[in-house]
Amino acid sequence: MNDGVNGVALAVFIIFFLAVTVVGFMAARWRKAENENSLDEWGLGGRSFGTWVTWFLLGGDLYTAYTFVAVPAAIYAAGAAGFFAVPYTILIYPLMFVFLPRLWSVSHKHGYVTTSDFVRGRFGSKGLSLAVAVTGILATMPYIALQLVGIQAVLDVMGVGGGEDTNWFVKDLPLLIAFGVLAAYTYSSGLRAPALIAFVKDALIYLVIGVAIIYIPIKLGGFDEIFKAAGDAFSQTNPATGNPRGALAPGEASQWTYATLALGSALALFMYPHSVTAVLSSRSRDVIRRNSTILPLYSLMLGLLGLLGFMAIAAGIKVTNGQLAIPQLFENMFPAWFAGVAFAAIGIGALVPAAIMSIAAANLFTRNIYKDFLKPDATPEQETKVSKLVSLVVKVGALVFVLTMDKTVAINFQLLGGIWILQTFPALVGGLFTRWMHRWALLAGWAVGMLYGTLAAYGVASPTQKHFGGSSKEIPGIGEIGYIGLTAFVLNVVVTVVLTFVLRALKAPEGLDETKASDYTADAGDPGVVVELPPATAGAVH
Amino acid sequence: MSQGPEVRPPVVTPVRAVIVLCLVAPFVAMLWVGSYAKVDPAFIGIPFFYWYQMLWVVISTALTMTAYQLWQRDQRVRKASAQDGGASA
Questions:
Q1: Cβ of A90 and B34 within 8 Å?
Q2: Could you give all domains of chain A from N- to C-terminal order, each with its CATH number?
Q3: Tell me, what's the ipTM?
Q4: Which residue of A lies nearest to B40 if distances are taken between CA atoms?
Q5: What is the pTM of this model?
Q6: Residue B66 forms contact with A (CB below 8 Å)
Q7: Which of A93, A258, A290 is the closest to B33 by Cβ?
Q8: What is the pLDDT of residues A233-275, one digit of tens each?
Q9: What is the CA angle A216-A218-A223, rounded to 5?
């Protein structure tokens, strides 16, 4: 991308990276509990995090490096359409307020570590639980791969990794090192590592956005100039499609797409295993509710970040790969040392979610495939061991994915992952409120949603791709273009409801529900709810 | 379900209706894209479409906070009245 290595930026980047590595390994000793060898400890940080730790952890988890690169990149490419991330993240929090405290309560009461644990307990169906677990793992893997793409974008702009003609090993070495380090401290410290690193990550991100949103517009002559330049750029015809490149406000035709993308993505977010892992690691119901009121600060930041996409246009950034637009903007606009800080923010921003995602996927495998199907009598020690190993396997898998396949494959899969994960909503969120739905109906609804979503996404062509060219398609029966995931979800719900009536009429066996109504409102301190595991030493760090 | 003359607090109360409203409002505002898909009026040069949605981040935060406060109070009142009225099994 660039001629030569940006030495100062690289030095700053490396310093931050080293600092974070130290923090990651030290995290193992932070708020350590007596019994280290349980999955609650390694995989959920002892279920002990308070409001602020949870805030940083969730913020670091949900707003990933890929988000930071992809949202402004989408706006850089097409304008208004990319801004759907803001309404999407607005809608998350009322949803979080309503259903996550119930999930927290029932999980604490019954010791559930994953969403699939809950589904199995609620519906007495290992099949349904397996479906949820497999969906979760499939959706998470490409997401981890995309975090690597985020780091790669930063390394590229800094001039590390060389051009196309460098030896592949030299080219990928920095990425291999970054991931090796990440894998090592996740293995040893579990969820505590990303929880502590998230503090560094978010502090850096807020600093960088705060500076960028003031400094860059001043350099570019104010927002008036920025949006004028962007408006001009968008009105020009894109030779590939014959339409204007984009718009500053969505036209009539694209409003359905905008709304369905926002709603579908919001419904899907807390179905992802890594979001749930962060939620279950919190100390009480109140921590979750309080977080639903303070997490929107990140949405505001995301909105400001989106505006950087317009600034990239106004600053005359020309990149063929849109994902490089923002890193390139930082490099052009900021003094080298601060560009280094910005790159560190994005790079570390990739490490936190990648760690949590690999832990979440590992927990799913351990609890819902290994323990349920392979070794039902596994001890907590064995569970933890398997989970640690699987977290490594998951990361290596993501790395191989990124290094051997084209980047667009990872992006396609992530798009599919969003559609897929939404299909677990009826079983999970539905299950939190009612036991009316039949387990087999839920399984059938899930299968229909998965199938429709995958086929529909396969059939979307774009100027550059024959398949998986986007996530929106005509909604059958309505005729507007909408988010495929949401259409599949509606189909899923319809199938579930209809089949539930049928199965109930046929008196199909309903399965055992091990939860009771009061489990869903239980709070820390209530009988039967495990409070924080006893600390190893009084006066432990922090 | 009901056991004797003891009156259970109603499930739907004005306070709870307000809580639901607070939580539903962002959905109505954000999904009705036609209401804000325009460029003017701009604010310090930022088109309406963008600043309006960012304003809604703040509004929805305030609404969720209100819902949280009301919910806390609702739960406290319920707990207190449950204790006053004697423990119902």
A1: no
A2: 7-511 (1.20.1730.10)
A3: 0.84
A4: A249
A5: 0.86
A6: no
A7: A258
A8: 888 777 666 677 777 888 777 888 889 989 998 999 989 998 9
A9: 85
